[in-house]
Sequence to fold (169 residues):
Amino acid sequence: MEWTGARYADKPTVEVRTWIDATPDRVWAIVSDVERMAGMSTELQSVEWLDGVTAPAVGRKFLGRSRHESFGEWSTTSEVVDCEPGRVFGWAVGDAAEPSAIWRFVLRPKDDGTELTQWMQLGPGRSGLSFAIDRMPDKEQKIVFVRLREFERNMTATLAHIKGAAEQR
Fold:
């Protein structure tokens, strides 16, 4: 990832990808199991479906609990906004109309396996990062850059976990 000087209002994004020696359906079973995502990165601690649901569909919501040494502990409610089995799974954090972030997994058949991409966008809605920027507006670009690098590291770790799980025979 290179320095872009992005501001939060620019809705900066991060994307990582990997190839997995497994079918898109096998990979889908992992990426769409939100409760399984906890522990795949250093930040996400637990996830649970809300309103008694147990599987993804557009409009369904889940609660995520996270921890970060600089931000402490917090929870967010996310709403599934993209759900095409074997192809795409995405959710908006907070208000789906003005999310604090959007996350997405995209699966594509490739070379008898699956190319898995994880993508995320900051904003446009306010998040915990907004409070740090409010306190230090002169450091906004650095704050955004550092946070995007953290997301990139955690997303890379998440994809490695998914790859390992999907490739187990």
Observations:
- Residues 140-167 form the longest helix (28 residues).
- Residues 37 and 47 are 7 Å apart (CA to CA).
- The mean pLDDT is 92.
- The helical segments are 24-31, 128-135, 140-167.
